[in-house]
């Protein structure tokens, strides 16, 4: 991934009013949109999210918008996907 993630983050901050109050606003966007994933990097980003006054708004937005990249609301893409599509969701819908 390029710095495109950071550009998207800055654009989103302008478009989503609550995001301007986010703890991530003073952090390097690469923290939330890393070029290479690592457990340490993820933990550092989530630590910023833990102290964020708009954590719930950010998480709700990311789930609603199905954000395909980055850490939003203290959740990774995989964690958000797990909330949107819990284990067994397909079987329950067809059963």
Q: How big a fraction of the residues is strand? A: under 5%
Strand runs, count: 0
Ends distance = 40 Å
Helix content: 40-55%
Based on secondary structure, the structural category is mainly alpha
What is the multimeric organization of the chains shown?
single chain
User: Which residues sit in consecutive blocks of at least 5 with pLDDT less than 50?
Assistant: none
Element order, helices and strands? HHHHH
Q: Quick check: average pLDDT?
A: 82
Instruction: Characterize the largest beta sheet: strand count, sense, and whether it forms a barrel.
Output: none
Determine Rg (CA atoms, Å).
Answer: 14 Å
Specify the number of helices. 5
Give structural attributes.
single chain; 95 residues; mainly alpha; 5 helices; 0% strand
Q: Can you offer a commentary on this structure?
A:
With 95 residues, this protein is mostly helical. It is 52% helix and 0% strand. It contains five helices and no strands. The longest helix is centred in the N-terminal third of the chain and has 12 residues, at 4-15. It is globular, with a radius of gyration of 14 Å. It starts with a helix and ends with a helix. The mean pLDDT is 82.
Write a brief caption for the model.
It contains 5 helices and no strands. The protein is mostly helical and 95 residues long.
List the helices and strands and how they pair.
Layout: H1 4-15, H2 39-50, H3 55-65, H4 77-84, H5 89-94
């Amino acid at each position: 991934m390029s710095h495109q993630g950071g550009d998207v983050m800055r654009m989103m901050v302008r478009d989503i009013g609550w995001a301007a109050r986010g703890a991530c606003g003073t952090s390097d966007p690469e923290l939330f949109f890393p070029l290479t994933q690592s457990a340490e990097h993820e933990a550092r980003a989530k630590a910023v999210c833990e102290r964020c006054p708009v954590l719930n708004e950010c998480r709700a937005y990311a789930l609603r918008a199905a954000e395909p990249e980055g850490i939003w609301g203290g959740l990774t893409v995989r964690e958000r996907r797990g909330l949107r599509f819990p284990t067994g969701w397909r079987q329950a819908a067809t059963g």
